[in-house]
Amino acid sequence: MQSKIVMDAINKVGDTQDKLLEVLIEVQAQAPGNYISETSLRDIAQGLNIPLSKAYSVAGFYSMLSTKERGKYLIQICNSGPCYINRGKAIAHAFEQVLGIKMGETTTDKLFTLEYTSCFGACDVAPAIKLNDKVYGNLTVNRAIQIINDLKEGEK
User: What pTM was estimated for this model as a whole?
Assistant: First the structure.
């Protein structure tokens, strides 16, 4: 018995094996915790008639997908060359300091997750981050701190 989220994703995207990545993205987008659970991976494998190992390997390969629960706000910091040489490391450090977590961790209130990611095509505004689906570019340490403070204020 497949979960409703998986069934809805397969019905929306398609049930052929070549739809695996699209189904994974759709399931993650709809799942609480912004991740793909082991149960969902099993349901996806069954629904697309593929080996579970293939579903796991694809979910683990792409940085945009996660098999670990993440926060409401997913902050992905680009670690490609242009962002790195434009003080991307300082931006990452600022986020770690203001949130009190390290890369790959989620705050205890489940609001924020910090991750490095590969290039997402915002090199013209490096250093850049993706906060959920929105891109923030030309970041400074002060702007990074302001983004977090604004989000925290909005949660009150």
Answer: 0.80
